[in-house]
Design brief:
mainly alpha; globular; 64% helix; TorD-like; 11 helices
Length: 203
């Protein structure tokens, strides 16, 4: 995703959504490493405030490490898989239903709520992705649409409180102990949590 100034909440939500939906490409990694992350970091710092400092420093440290590691693209892809594609007993999963049902099932009430929202907003879930509608990335894409809509069906703050803050902090805590080579994705999750907390207070 090409980041252009001026940024705003919709762009930030789309960026978050992209990070959590698929692995970074080599092109994205190279772009971040030559200053492409700077504008985004400044916007996140402005939107979040002091809680952004630690995660942003961690990400910037990773950007430097990527440039020195020939296998960084594969290692980062392995990190993504460990955090967002794992399944089985005791793993964390990026779906609201997983948390509303105590880890027992997917495609539950949050999925159906999100499916209705996405349909009403004219957003379609990529059938090739085979992901439930309550995947974190789909929720963030919908949130971006709320920020862009002139007459949204619900306020962004309402959606954040009702559908995101109910489970994203728990997911963030659950992935924290997962071993990864880089801290990039975990740091972005920390930024997302702080961003959502700040956004929810703006109502």
């Amino acid at each position: 995703m090409e980041i252009k100034a001026p940024l705003g909440p919709a762009v930030l939500c789309e960026w978050f959504a992209g990070v959590f939906f698929r692995e970074l490409t080599r092109e994205q990694m190279q772009n971040y490493g030559v200053g492409g992350f700077d504008r985004l970091a400044a916007e996140l710092d402005q939107a979040i405030g002091p809680p952004s400092v630690g995660p942003l420093e961690e990400i910037k440290g990773d950007l430097k490490r990527w440039q020195k590691a020939p296998s960084s693209e594969l290692e980062l892809a392995a990190d993504f898989a460990a955090l967002f594609l794992a399944n089985g007993v005791g793993v964390a999963m990026p779906y609201a239903s997983f948390y509303e049902t105590g880890g027992k099932r997917l495609f539950d009430k949050p999925h159906h709520r999100m499916a209705r929202r996405l349909e009403a907003a004219g957003l379609t879930v990529d059938v090739d992705a085979r992901e439930p509608a309550d995947h974190l990335s789909f929720q963030l894409t919908y949130l971006a649409e709320l920020y862009l809509a002139q007459q949204p069906p619900e306020t962004p703050e309402e959606f954040i409180r009702l559908e995101l803050l109910t489970w994203v902090p728990k997911f963030t805590r659950d992935v924290a102990p997962v071993p990864t080579t880089y801290g990039f994705h975990k740091a972005v999750l920390k930024l997302l949590n702080a961003y959502l907390q700040q956004a929810a207070r703006r109502a």
